[in-house]
Amino acid sequence: MDSSDVKVLGAWPSPFVMRPRIALNIKSVTYEFLQEGLGSKSELLLQSNPVHKKIPVLIHAQKPICESLIIVQYIDEVWSSGPTLLPSDPYDRAVARFWAAYVDDKWFPCLRGIAKAQGKETREEAIEQVKEGLVLLEGAFEKCSKGKGYFGGEKIGYLDIAVGSFLGWIRATEKMNGVKLLDEAKTPGLVGWAERFCANSAVKEVMPETEKLAEFAKILQAKFKAPPPN
């Protein structure tokens, strides 16, 4: 398919932007990646997502689709000839959606809370919450993978994309804070899964380098901690 027919509006550090890019790569769909600048919103973005005014946005045949997980589901349905992302079984599909929502609504705010923490005690509390969430996801991995290499079984699926998009930020957070979030002792399944996920050809080209992401994170951290303007 002509890449002019498929566009992704986003920014390279965003885990949410990674999701549609990985899904399109898995489906072997050629697309154009349009970078949004830090702290600015293009006219195309504002026109494409007038409600939330945020990335990512998938533009397919000049029609915009917003919200990362909705975009991934859309990609799965439209390019149905490629590998399927959502489980075929209705229960398994519901479980995958449940854990994807948990990651976005409950777990990711804790990860972001580490960077926003103003004191040592608050930071340590956020780190513990992230670790507790990863233990829960370890249990989810055991059930969803059914002994295979991915949440989706033998291949990367919807929940792999939902969780795996945060691996770059997990590594950057570990580096910046001198902690180990993905622990071989407590989450051995996730540790092995993370290595397989990041080594996959659909993921490698869009997964940010840890050093580059850590540098970007320092800029964000300074903004979080800057005093509000008078």
Structure overview:
By secondary structure, the chain is α+β, with helices and mostly antiparallel strands. The chain has 2 domains: 3-78, Glutaredoxin, CATH 3.40.30.10; 90-219, Up-down Bundle (Glutathione S-transferase Yfyf (Class Pi), Chain A, domain 2). The protein contains 10 helices and 4 strands, in the order E-H-E-H-E-E-H-H-H-H-H-H-H-H. Strand 3 and strand 4 (63-66) form a beta hairpin. Helix 1 (15-26) runs parallel beside helix 3 (68-78). The relative contact order is 0.12. The mean pLDDT is 94. Residues 4-83 form the GST N-terminal domain. Belongs to the GST superfamily. Tau family. Pfam families: GST_C (PF00043), GST_N (PF02798).
How is this fold's topology laid out?
Elements: E1 6-10, H1 15-26, E2 32-35, H2 43-48, E3 57-60, E4 63-66, H3 68-78, H4 90-116, H5 120-145, H6 158-164, H7 167-177, H8 188-199, H9 201-204, H10 210-225
Parallel strand pairs: 1-2
Antiparallel strand pairs: 1-3, 3-4
Helix pairs in contact: 1-3, 4-5, 4-6, 7-10
GO molecular function: glutathione transferase activity
Domain GST C-terminal: 89-216
Protein name: glutathione transferase
